[in-house]
Amino acid sequence: MKLFKSNIERMQLLLPLMVWLLIFTLPLLLGDFENGVNWLHISKIWKEYLILFLIFLTNRFFLMPEFFFKNKRTEYFIAIVILIAAFGFLLYWLEANEAPEKMMDLPPHGHGRPLGTANEPQGPPPRMNRGPIELIPPYVNITIMSILMIGFDSGLMFFSKWMKSQQNQLKAEKESVENKMAFLQNQVSPHFFMNTLNNIHALIDIDQEEAKESVIKLSQMMDYMLYESQSSDISLKQEVEFINSYVDLMKLRYTDDVDIKINVSSALPAVKIPPLLTISFIENAFKYGISYEKPSFIHINIDVSKTDFNFLIRNSINSIPEKKKNSGIGISNAKNRLDLLFSDKHQLIISNKNAIFEVKLNFPL
Q1: Range of the domain at 21
Q2: 194-216: per-residue pLDDT in tens?
Q3: Which candidate in 78, 229, 247, 305 could, as Cys together with 275 as Cys, close a disulfide (CB 3.0–4.6 Å)?
């Protein structure tokens, strides 16, 4: 983005510079100088271009910043008309008051004539070559060129400012997305730790050794949650290890009557993915899919190819009070994160049929 912004600023500077170099060079390139360079004529053209250049500087560094870009459009156009009229009048006045070009030197009338030529009729005095005939008066020419030049330069400045505005807007939107991502991701952590600590609390009375091992495993998971997962992406291997550790920790709470299975692709590609995208769905399955009164199951399948991440979780549905069904924020956060990260490039299908809750997630790697 910084490179793009610098390119815009460079274009805004270099393009007018190249145009002005071309304008001042054209009289030297296109003139007819068979008998030498007519510097008198060129200097006259350069004088007109200098006035045009002053109009350009006034428009670029004063009128556009002080009027046009401050939404004083009416004042801007009035100032432009006054500016062009003033410089056009100045050029007209200079042309009108400029001393006429000297005629070829002639002797005073009646003096210096050769003898015997006193009564000979005198022809018209010879005229000096004044250069190309000007079909358009200079002040009209400068008015037309001023309008064209101001239109070009104002359009260039407006385009550059619009592009900067677009870049700033994209930057603000990106920062907003990053802030939302951080907020949603941080919401996952308290929810996760609350459930896990409850599991360890229940395990202490059953098997203290297992509880100690669970605390160690939880500390490793906390390290992942607090440090590793704060990155925008994490290695797929680390994410899968975290999921396996979480499932192993959750298994400790339940008897063998609960069918808990996790199947992961044997060969994981060395790619990075956003962290904690699936943990909310897994938490939800353990929270609402386990029953102590009837057979329950949670089946997790993670299939990863070189181009796609496929996640499938199916669980039995436990009877839950209606109030609790809408109390969790995990799945809602997961949906928001997926929308922010992948827009319409991912596929999330959640279904509830035949007492089975199922979540299918696919996103590109």
Answers
A1: 2-135
A2: 767 887 887 788 888 888 888 88
A3: 229
